[in-house]
Amino acid sequence: MELGEVVVEARGIEKYFGSNHVLRGVDLDVRQHETVMLIGRSGSGKTTMLRCLNFLEEPSVGTVRIGDISATADPLHARSRKHREELRNLRLQAGMVFQDFNLFPHMTVLENCIEAPTRVKGVPKAEAIATAEKYLTKVKLIEKRDEHPARLSGGQKQRVAIARALCMEPKVLMFDEPTSALDPELVGEVLTVMTELAHEGSTMIVVSHEMQFCREAADRVVFMEGGVVVEQGPPDQVLTHPQEEATKHFLRRFLTPDQSAVITAMAEG
Amino acid sequence: MAVMQQGIQPSIVDEIARAQAASRRDFLLKFSLTWVVIIAGIALAIWSTGNADPAFTVKWGPLILGGAGITVFICITSIIGATVLAVLGALGRLSLNPFINGAASLYVSLVRGTPLIVQIYFIFFALPQMGIVLDPIIAGIFALAFNYGAYMTEVFRAGIQAVPRGQREAAQALGMPERLIMRRIVLPQATRIVVPAIGNDFVSMIKDSSLVSVVSLQELLWRANSVGRSNQQLIQALLIAALVYWALTIIFSFFQARLEKRLAKGDR
Question: Which domain CATH number covers B223?
Answer without folding.
Answer: 1.10.3720.10
